[in-house]
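hey can u check if this looks right to u? its 458 residues, i copy pasted from the old doc so theres a chance i mangled smth
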Amino acid sequence: MSLLTHILACLFGMGSWVAINGMWVELPLIVPQIPELWALPSYLTVLIQTANIGPLVVTLMHHFRPGVLDERPVVYCIAVLGIIATFLLAFFWKHTVTIAGSPHSVPLLILCFLLSVVDCTSSVTFLPFMMRLCPQYLTSYFVGEGLSGLVPALAALIQGVGVVRCHNSTLTVSLNKTLANSTVDPDKLQAIYQPAKFSAQAFFLFLSAMMVICLIAFILLNHHPAVARKKKDDSYFREDQDLTPGKREQAFSLHPQTPEQKPMLNPFGSARRAPRSSFGRGTYSNAEVAFIFLVLAWVNSLTNAVLPSVQSYSCLPYGNQAYHLAATMAAVANPLACFIAMFKPIRSLIFMCVLTVFGTGFGSYIMAMAALSPCPLLVHSTSGTVVIVLAWVLFVLSLSYVKVIIGVILRDEGHSALVWCGAVVQLGSMVGALSMFPLVGVYELFKSGDVCNTNCPM
C-alpha cells in the first residue's frame, strides 16, 4: 500500500505545472496560426506573473489567519478549473476577437491566464497538503512535479513539434507556384517546419486528461482506505481543531515531542535543542532560514525563468537536434534529481551551497553561449553540441536536487514553512521572469541562430 501512496503522490504532483509546461512546448505549433505570432511568449510571461495573485492571497491568509484556510477545498477548485480550462483550450485556442480593428486571441489569453492561476496557486497548496502524508512521500511528489515538465515534452516530441527540414531555397520556390517570382539566394537553405503527427486540439485534450488524473489522485489521497490507515497510524497527522498554531506545527513535524517526553530527556541535551529561531520548529537560526530561502529563490529564478528564456538562443546555433536534445534531456534530469534525493537526501547547508554554485556555473556557461549567439563557442563542432547539452543536463540536475532538499528541510519545519516555500518559489520565478523580459523582448539583446544557415568564422 506504500507503493500505491507513492504512485498517487507522484500523479498528484504531475498536475502542478503540466498545463503551463504543455503550453510552452506547444508554442511552435500554435504560434503560426494566431495573430500574435511570436509575441505570444511575451504575453504568456506577463500572464503567468499576473497570476501570482493566487499564491499571494493564499500566503496572506496563512500569515494573518493561521489555521483558518484548509488547502483541500482550494486544491479541488484549482484542479477542476484546470480541467475545464484545458478542455476549452482544445476548442477555442484559434478563435479570435476583433479589438480596435485588429484580431486578437482573446479566448486563448484568458484561458492561459486561468491555467497560470491554477499552476501558480498549486505551489502554495499542493506542497502544504503533502504535510498530511509521511515525509518519504514528499520526494514522490517532487518526482511528479518534475514529470509535469517531462511528460508534455515527450508528448510534443512524439507529436513532432518544431521538427525542421532544411531545403535548398531554389528547389523550395520551384515547388511552390505562389512564390514563382520570388528572388532567392540559391546558396541559402530554407527551414521548412514539418506537419505534426496529431493536432494541437488533441494535445490540449491530453493535458486535460492529465489534470483529471491529478484530481483522481488527490481524491484517493484523501479518501482511499490504505492512505487513511497510514494517516491514522502516524502521530503527526493529527488535525484536532483545538490545537494552537504552535502545537499544530509540532503535530505536523517529522519528530513530534509531547510535553510528557521532554522531562525524560538529558537536561544538557535539552538546552542544545532549544529553538534557535521562531521559524517552524526552530531547527535553524534566522540567518540560516534567510540563507535557505535566498537559495530557493535564486535556484527557482534560474530554472523557471532566466535560463528557459534563453534556451533557444543557447542551443539553436548548434542545430535543431541540439535544441530538442537539450530540452528533452533537461526535462529528464528534473525527475532524475528527485529520484536521487529520494535515496540520498543530503541536508547539509554547506553541500547545498556548493551544489548551488556548481549549478550556477553551468547556468553561467549557458547564458554566455546565449549572449554569443548566433556564433557561440565550438559552433561548428560536435563537441560544442555535446558540451551545451551536458551543460543543460547538469544545470537542471544539480539545481533540481537543491530544490528537493530544501523542500524536505522545510517539510520538517512544519506546515507554514511549506506555505512560505511555495511563496518564495513563485517570488523567485517572478523576479527572474521580470528581469529577463525587457532584455529578451524589449531590448532584444539576444540574437537567434538560424537552424539551417549559421555563418560564423571557423
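Residues 7 and 140 are 7 Å apart (CA to CA).
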